[in-house]
UniProtKB/TrEMBL annotation, chains A, B:
This protein's name: Phosphate acyltransferase
Catalytic function, reaction form: a fatty acyl-[ACP] + phosphate = an acyl phosphate + holo-[ACP]
Gene: plsX
Organism: Paracoccus spongiarum
Keywords, in A-Z order: Acyltransferase, Cytoplasm, Lipid biosynthesis, Lipid metabolism, Phospholipid biosynthesis, Phospholipid metabolism, Transferase
Pathway: Lipid metabolism; phospholipid metabolism
Amino acid sequence: MSVDSSTSPAPRAPQDGGSVVISVDAMGGDRGPSVVVAGMAASAAKNPEIRFIVHGDEAQLRPLIDRRKALAGRCEIRHAAGIVTMEDKPSQVLRKGGDTSMWSALESVRAGEAGAAVSCGNTGALMAMSMLRLRKLPGVNRPAIACLWPSRNPQGFNIMLDVGADIRADAPDLLQYAMMGASYARNGLGVAHPRIGLLNVGTEEHKGRAELKQANDLIGAAADCGDFDYVGFVEGGDLPAARVDVIVTDGFTGNVALKTGEGTARLVGEFMREAFANSFMSKFAALLAMTSLKRLQKRIDPRRVNGGIFLGLNGTVVKSHGSADATGVSAAIKLAFTLAKSGFHERLAARVAQGAAASAGASSEGQDAGATT
Amino acid sequence: MSVDSSTSPAPRAPQDGGSVVISVDAMGGDRGPSVVVAGMAASAAKNPEIRFIVHGDEAQLRPLIDRRKALAGRCEIRHAAGIVTMEDKPSQVLRKGGDTSMWSALESVRAGEAGAAVSCGNTGALMAMSMLRLRKLPGVNRPAIACLWPSRNPQGFNIMLDVGADIRADAPDLLQYAMMGASYARNGLGVAHPRIGLLNVGTEEHKGRAELKQANDLIGAAADCGDFDYVGFVEGGDLPAARVDVIVTDGFTGNVALKTGEGTARLVGEFMREAFANSFMSKFAALLAMTSLKRLQKRIDPRRVNGGIFLGLNGTVVKSHGSADATGVSAAIKLAFTLAKSGFHERLAARVAQGAAASAGASSEGQDAGATT
């Protein structure tokens, strides 16, 4: 996997005999801690380099972990009695705070004990707590959540951000998303020179909202220093396209697009199952095509792309779907591992600093300086 | 089909022996007039009540139409030499205006000769020309484009609007979209008491942009007088859901969602074809399951849902996809026919007037009156 060469690797977590430590919040997912531990075990069985610090109710976690051979000697439990539920509002969570498994999981990243944190908990609460404990990276105005999207590209996925950290984004925010998305594409997907697109309702330069036209100029001007290609405006139909690797948008539009895409894939999957259950002949055909259908299912399986990344904080946080099963949790852990091992966090911080400098340079030349570059 | 009972049917087009006249712009689609004429012929063969006024270059149209038996004696040609191309900007189009087939097609609706117009041309140009020739309905601030979305509902489709007429919408605009969408659901899909949802990034009342919270109150308060149910906020994953019939959003978000959904369905379709072409066994299975696969393809076929409706004008305009084939054009014509026959335009105008009155009433009680209802 080719990685960002702009800074030398400087992994942040203590490396124990070449191992990478991931901090896991075992509570708060819809399916409870047993599914999270099962996902950890699946990752551990496949990946000898991985170790865990796991946070939650020790009385529940101890027997679950002891039952899994793959986790023997590779898993430290940190007891935390409180749980952030899906119903908790961010403000409530910050009050009950320090006692929860979510807080404790972030603390391990903050203290440098773990290279990344993974949680299946409440997204709003996790973002609020991450902002409070890890703080925003210097130069970042709005952190973002990036997701992976099945695509026609060789790496199999495109990246879209923001998909819901903040419902607003102005032009300098969108530039930061571009810089952070490019760094994530290099370190998470191994795309050496990512192509960035800005989501709009048309590809013509005169279309769209005022902040998009301004961001179009800013991102175009930053392409060289950010070591990416800027392909300009892209449309909703381009999210899986081979002409772009990273799609930049505000958190409102990105969240609607993400859920629309997931919902459409689910609908087509349901229609397909109904079609094959329709007659004896089609059931027989489904049996014959089993291998192909399974391969297809794997390709569009939302569990495989499980793991939104919080970008723009002092530390890497992976948000797994609340309803993720063991396969989904394992996918989120794999992503956290890949990023922690690549020294992603330090590389991202360096890029953001570059972007801030570029943006400041552009602003000091006046509001419409971007239009002339 | 149950229709809106709030006003008595008053079809606008001259009814010739029970027939309904549709005005068709035969030029300007990506595939040329032969595909449009083929679509008209397919509709005419299935529907004895339909008649056409077709607009475009007579020298091209005459032989295409003479070749189709189904169109014999049911099709009047109006010569128009100019064509609006996909590249034309709305401003250019308005200058060359009167000479084009698009202009001429709208003129037939304006003059009351046809019950609805259908065009495969440039969306921006068609909207600009429709605004100029048909004018906005009294009380409508921003017209909208409504699309159909495959869904789990008995009627097979949900309605989403606006999908691209205007990139902005404030709370009173969103209320108008709700009133217009409800009327379209009644007259176009036969849903007697439509359920309306407002697209947001979460279903909790505290989420989302300020104008959405305000629209939430306005639409909720108008549900009784508008004869619809208001289900509150819905998310991207609910677009095909059975808990809602009409999804209201601004044209920027709606356009991104529409193209994202279409793109995802196309991607899954490609993956499916690749999966079945993978081995001898799977090719054989595909052969066996042919009938089921064809049924599936028909269910997710974007051509079947072809036809965005322009709402909020003095006349019904159906925008077909520029790349529509004969099946797609025929679907758009069928939709135009259904709406023209139901007296949709007059019913919609009555509803908009009601909505404007309700909205004015709410404002006169002060800015946050809606919150208390």
